[in-house]
Amino acid sequence: MAAETAGMGLGHVAALLGAGVVGVAVFRKIGLGSVLGYLVAGLALGPFGLALVKEPQTILHVAEFGVVIFLFIIGLEMRPSRLWAMKGEIFGLGTAQVGLSGLALTLIAMAAGVSAPIAFVGAMGFVM
User: Fold this and answer.
1) What is the pTM (predicted TM-score) of this model?
2) What is the pLDDT of residue 6?
3) Parent domain of 121
4) For the chain, N or C: smaller number of CB within 10 Å?
């Protein structure tokens, strides 16, 4: 007899989609973003809410797919002309933020006793 594996069945998927639709409708009605509606729907059905999905690992693939779709939608909505107009903020302030944050985290890690190359790689990986 095969052991039953934990996973997401059709009922779980239908509940997640239904909660997402309701959450987005409510949050859009009160003037907040749809992403917050999805987050609240996921929290409500997750292990710390109604516990429809008891193991966080079972919903991991759905969450990863949601992030990919979210980034795809952002890419579709970004206009090249708007991106070109923001080049100063993107390259100037963005580079400064990455550089200063990386330097600060590198120094903190080195103060904790980590060698300089490892501290730098870890800090820059964390910053990115």
Assistant:
1) 0.51
2) 59
3) 80-127
4) N
